[in-house]
Structure formats: structure tokens, C-alpha cells
């Protein structure tokens, strides 16, 4: 009966270690890729929910001097029933943990927010543009301010810059058409 030589055992052991090590490396990288994809997917769902909430509030907003449009924030009033008005605001807030898109809500007659909710974390920038009618009827011109606080704009563009894991900064843009809004003529000084 013949056994294995020391060289054969060492070669077999080396091959086994290489195969197991390669499998472990592939498995480890797969787990990292899965976790990264999971974080991105979660952020995508959170972003979609935040944009849906903004769109819903804007579509339910009312005018009559109750809308404020700035380059970095939106404030509108929505009807939460026949006798209940809510002032809703969206803005970027910065804390020691980074920047977040925050939705504030308060009763119309109150001065302090009733609630503030972080809609989206990891937001580097939140900018808002307001659509005005251009020289041609089909043309929309974008400005960083809404000049008519007694009217709700017909269209609002929101740009978000998000920090994403391993992908760096991602820019998202969404436009919200507001059925009760008006498409005002662009201010003469800004055409």
C-alpha cells in the first residue's frame, strides 16, 4: 500500500486553500454588493415617498395669499377638511448627522409647527424652481422665486442632490403640475 508523498499533500492543501479562499472572497464581495444595493433601494423608496408627499401637498394646496415659493423652500396651505387649514413647509435642515429634507406642519392659526418630520436623509441640496409662461404659449420659463403669493403656481420643479453609498452624489429632478395653479406670465425684468 502506497500513501501520499509530502509534496502531493502540500500541493493538494495549497489548491484546497486557494479554492476555499477564492470562494470566500467571492462570497464576501457578494455580501457587500447586496448590502450596498439594499441601501440604494431603501434610499430610492424613501426618495419616491418624499416626492409623492410633496406632490400630494402641492396638488392639495390653495392660493389666496397662502403660498410662498423660495429657491430653497416651499410653504403652502392645504385644506384638511372643511374647516381645517394646515400650513405645510418643505426645507433642508442641517444637523450634526448631515442634511435632511424636512416637512413641517402646523395649524393655519398657529405660529409654531405642530410636527416636523424628516422625509429624506443624506440630502446635499434641495432647490425649487417655479414655472412661468414664456413668450410662446407652450414655453415654460423657470425662476427661483414665485412672485404671486396670492396664487399657486401651475408647475414646480424640485431638484434633489442625494449622497448615495459608493455612487457619490446623485441628482434627481421632478416636476409637479398643480391643477388649481396658474401659469403666470414671466416677470418683465427677468425675461
Structure in words:
The protein is an alpha+beta fold and 191 residues long. It has a domain at 30-73 and 122-190. Helices cover 28% and strands 39% of the residues. It has 1 helix and 10 strands; from the N terminus they run H-E-E-E-E-E-E-E-E-E-E. The chain has one helix at residues 6-59; strands at 61-62, 68-70, 73-79, 85-95, 98-107, 115-121, 123-133, 140-143, 155-164, 168-177. Strands 1, 2, 3, 4, 5 and 6 form a 6-stranded antiparallel β-sheet that branches. The chain has a 4-stranded antiparallel β-sheet with strand order 8-7-9-10, covered by helices on one side. The longest helix is centred in the N-terminal third of the chain and has 54 residues, at 6-59. It is elongated.
Concise overview:
The protein is of the alpha+beta class and 191 residues long.
Overall geometry: elongated
- Number of H- or I-type helical stretches: 1
Q: Average the pLDDT over all residues and give the rounded result.
A: 85
Terminus-to-terminus distance = 97 Å
The structure class reads alpha+beta
- Low-pLDDT sequence parts: none
Query: Helicity level, as a percent range?
Result: 25-40%
Instruction: Count all strands and give the number.
Output: 10
Order of helices and strands: HEEEEEEEEEE
Strand content: 35-45%
| Main pleated-sheet profile | 6 strands, antiparallel
Radius of gyration, taken over Cα atoms and rounded to an integer in Å: 27 Å
Describe the protein's topology.
Elements: H1 6-59, E1 61-62, E2 68-70, E3 73-79, E4 85-95, E5 98-107, E6 115-121, E7 123-133, E8 140-143, E9 155-164, E10 168-177
Antiparallel strand pairs: 1-3, 2-3, 3-4, 4-5, 5-6, 7-8, 7-9, 9-10
